[in-house]
């Protein structure tokens, strides 16, 4: 590809970091080459806002730290980018919506702040479904992002711009958010890796809210080790976020927790020699194999499970009987929370305001109608309906009861049968842009394998495991689900799989 970024010469953040530390490469050189490549791949529509001056200022600061002779931060000079639901100083923060088309935040989200403190250099803001509502990145007010493997197809959503940018080699890693699968699904469809940590382990402060009891930040990168390098520094308790956890199963929720768990897991695996995953029990839910699953996806997942067995793992069948109930449950709870969260966008304080109106009520109505897209309006109306008098008990409270039952299903599986759960991320490979335009429910059904995890608040990740679809050239992802606070274990298991396979090393121009 023309204008190939310099950082693509390195297989990992660790290798890039070594080159930066030895001063064989500068953060400024990396930033310039990455910016040039991002602008050259405007056809992907992955970026919503790039500001060279802001990026190069961060690169200059990273070079000063690297040249100082002191220990520079762990990510000094590493090029990344942020999903446009994280507010940022300087760059616009739009959430993919006309409502916030020109909004610039006076402060950084905690995730942005922590990566900046770690020395990472941001290229800008990445495309996403409007207010993170969608599974294909087609709901962005600024047009869909496109999948680098086939630009006529979706990259997945809502973190589609993040996954597309990583898959195309424009950044080493990107931030995303996962409410119902929005890190795992685009990672799967774009052939990269992504992880959603346990709910509450990463601060939501400065994340433009969709569903407050579901939203969780997570990174997207090419492989598990790079995910660790991004996830560990952004995790930790934040007093500014009321949903942030101080402790994780007895351990303090601080940076270093996940890395320590990961390293301990790798050490334990070393005892297995040629069978590093000996004794690992992989639960395979029987409900995940059904008529909704495409044959090529099922085949790739089966091959991945066989690769894990070759590494010493044992496969056991488990049951998650309420898998299908996760769709109606999620699409009651998430829209209800969205209707509440989005009520702040009324045209009064900030955001879009209609040019013509008669009174305050008409100003609010016109502003919201003009600025919100159809999917956002649909979910606001659904949420308002289920929270209204006479329907709250019948819909919202009932959905919350089922949510607890779904979480209990996972806990029974972990307690009685397995250490991790594996299966598909999506029932199909990436669909063509526009396929679901007339049937939004079809898009909702694509979340069948990811929603239960989000409702339960569990950690889960996606790793590349094969190809399928038209001419066998579209990526397929394997989902790995862990018990609460076991992010390090998940990453270690994924790392062993990626040592034995090369799916994560495949790039669009090579397939």
From TrEMBL:
A matching Pfam family: Amidase
Arranged from A to Z, the UniProt key words for this protein are:
ATP-binding, Ligase, Nucleotide-binding, Protein biosynthesis, Transferase
Write out the GO biological process terms: translation
Give residue ranges for domain Amidase: 35-491
Q: What is its EC number?
A: 6.3.5.7
Record's subunit section: Heterotrimer of A, B and C subunits.
**Function in brief:** Allows the formation of correctly charged Gln-tRNA(Gln) through the transamidation of misacylated Glu-tRNA(Gln) in organisms which lack glutaminyl-tRNA synthetase. The reaction takes place in the presence of glutamine and ATP through an activated gamma-phospho-Glu-tRNA(Gln).
Q: Which family does it belong to?
A: Belongs to the amidase family. GatA subfamily.
Name the chain's protein.
Answer: Glutamyl-tRNA(Gln) amidotransferase subunit A
Its source organism is Pollutimonas thiosulfatoxidans
């Amino acid at each position: 590809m023309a204008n190939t970024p310099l950082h693509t010469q390195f297989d990992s953040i660790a290798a890039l970091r070594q080159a930066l530390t030895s001063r064989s490469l500068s953060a400024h050189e990396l930033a310039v080459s990455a910016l040039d490549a991002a602008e050259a791949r405007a056809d992907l529509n992955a970026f919503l806002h790039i500001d060279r001056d802001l990026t190069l200022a961060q690169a200059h600061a990273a070079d000063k730290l690297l040249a100082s002779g002191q220990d520079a931060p762990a990510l000094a000079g590493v090029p990344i980018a942020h999903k446009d639901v994280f507010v940022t100083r300087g760059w616009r923060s739009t959430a993919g919506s006309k409502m916030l088309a020109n909004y610039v935040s006076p402060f950084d989200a905690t995730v942005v702040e922590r990566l900046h403190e770690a020395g990472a250099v941001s290229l800008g803001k990445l495309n996403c479904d409007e207010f993170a509502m969608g599974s294909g990145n087609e709901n962005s007010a600024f047009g869909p992002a496109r999948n680098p493997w086939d630009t006529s197809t979706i990259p997945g959503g809502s973190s589609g711009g993040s996954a597309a940018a990583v898959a195309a080699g424009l950044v080493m890693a990107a931030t995303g958010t996962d409410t119902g699968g929005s890190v795992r699904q685009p990672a799967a469809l774009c052939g990269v890796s992504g992880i959603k940590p346990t709910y509450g382990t990463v601060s939501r402060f400065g994340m433009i809210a969709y569903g407050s009891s579901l939203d969780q930040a997570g990174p997207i990168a090419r492989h598990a080790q790079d995910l660790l390098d991004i996830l560990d520094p952004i995790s930790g308790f934040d007093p500014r976020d009321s949903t942030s956890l101080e402790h994780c199963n007895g351990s303090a929720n601080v940076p270093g927790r996940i890395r320590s768990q990961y390293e301990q897991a790798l050490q334990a695996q070393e005892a297995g020699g040629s069978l590093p995953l000996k004794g690992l029990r992989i639960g395979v839910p029987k409900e995940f194999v059904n008529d909704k699953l495409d044959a090529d996806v099922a085949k790739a997942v089966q091959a991945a499970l066989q690769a894990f067995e070759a590494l010493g793992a044992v496969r056991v069948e488990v049951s998650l009987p309420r898998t299908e109930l996760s769709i109606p449950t999620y699409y009651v709870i998430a829209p209800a929370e969205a209707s509440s969260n989005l009520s702040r966008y009324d045209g009064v304080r900030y955001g879009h305001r209609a040019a013509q109106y008669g009174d305050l009520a008409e100003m609010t109505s016109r502003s919201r109608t003009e600025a919100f897209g159809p999917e956002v309006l649909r979910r606001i109306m659904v949420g308002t309906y289920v929270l209204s008098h006479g329907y709250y008990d019948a819909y919202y409270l009932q959905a919350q009861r089922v949510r607890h039952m779904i979480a209990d299903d996972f806990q029974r599986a972990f307690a009685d049968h397995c250490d991790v759960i594996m299966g598909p991320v999506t029932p199909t490979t990436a669909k063509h842009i526009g396929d679901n335009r007339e049937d939004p429910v079809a898009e909702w059904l694509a979340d069948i394998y990811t929603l239960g995890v989000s409702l339960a608040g569990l950690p889960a990740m996606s790793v590349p495991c094969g190809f399928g679809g038209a001419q066998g050239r579209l990526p397929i992802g394997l989902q790995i689900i862990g018990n609460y606070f076991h992010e390090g274990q998940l990453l270690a298991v994924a790392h062993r799989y990626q040592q034995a396979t090369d799916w994560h090393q495949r790039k669009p121009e090579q397939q």
